[in-house]
Here is the input.
Amino acid sequence: MSDLRGDLVRLRARHEADVPILDTELHDDVALHARMGRRPWRPISPGTEASPYRVKEPRAEGASFSVVELACDTLAGTASLWDIDTHNRSAHIGIALRPAFRGKGLATDTVRVLCHYGFVVLGLHRIQIETLADNHPMIKAAEQAGFTKEGILRDAGWDTGGFVGEAVFGILVHEWTTA
Amino acid sequence: MTDLRGDLVRLRARHEADVPILDTELLDDVEVRARAGRSPWRPASPGSQTSHYRVMESTDAMAPFSIVELATDTLAGAVTMWGIDAHNRCAHIGIALRPGFRGKSLSTDTLRVLCHYGFIVLGMHRIQLETAADNHPMIKSAEQAGFTKEGVLRDAGWILGRFVGETVLGMLAGEWVAA
Here is the structure.
């Protein structure tokens, strides 16, 4: 079986055992959560359907993965291809790594594996990443994976007390092929 | 009664009598529709509940208007504030004029009236407009209304046989007050 694997990580479906770890380390941190999503943080009780990381059935418009670090075979975070649009052949990437798994190059590798999934498995033409304009680690990962900065949507997100710009990055399939 | 009125147009709710006119002139034209939306053109029978222009209730996330030209008191097109996000205090604008009402500066005036609605009535902080990168009349209208070009999402839309970039323009509440 060939799976979705890069140099440092592999992507697999969400397992039930991942959910409490992701909820605790990624959702329950209010300041971190505010930087990741477009919705305000709300309290979520353990084991409820409200968890953004719950196990879901596969859907045509989105694919949720858990990221596993190859070196230690351990859950490293979550990655998704969302808003998959088969007419315009485009989709968006969302990534969040557990705090202890940051700064190791896993995000760049995860973006590359997601691009393989989007371009080769799904047949997309364009993949987009949005992130806060001051999220330098994510911006670096996007650029290292071959994405081009296409603009900054000024003041597009409310991040705990102030408006912050949102940087938009894109990569096209032929840029990926030549990478 | 004060209504939503500019120098050339006023905005009002959709009336049933508008629907067949908008369907015929804006929806039935494959090229116009392909350039106006993100989904592929599909045949829709008269009175279809799938019509983009059917009478529908406004929601917290969307407010659909019909545009009336003041000089002739005639339906000139449709405009929607969509993706209204009360947390990030931002929203998007989509506008379509009937063919006989283009080239008369109605879209710039419509944008100004809708910005009044968004910034003053709804309390938005940011309003955004996306259009095909080669839609020069729309880009010019947006810039005349005070929007700033923030980026081009390369090849983001499939328009009748090819991928076309999508230009994103934004305006912040502070820029609107100063206008």
Observations:
- Chain A has a mean pLDDT of 93.
- Residues 100 and 130 of chain A are 23 Å apart (CA to CA).
- Helices of chain A lie at 18-27, 30-36, 106-121, 136-144, 173-177.
- Chain A touches chain B at residues 38-40, 85, 87-90, 125-126, 128, 148, 150-158, 163, 168, 170, 172 (CB under 8 Å).
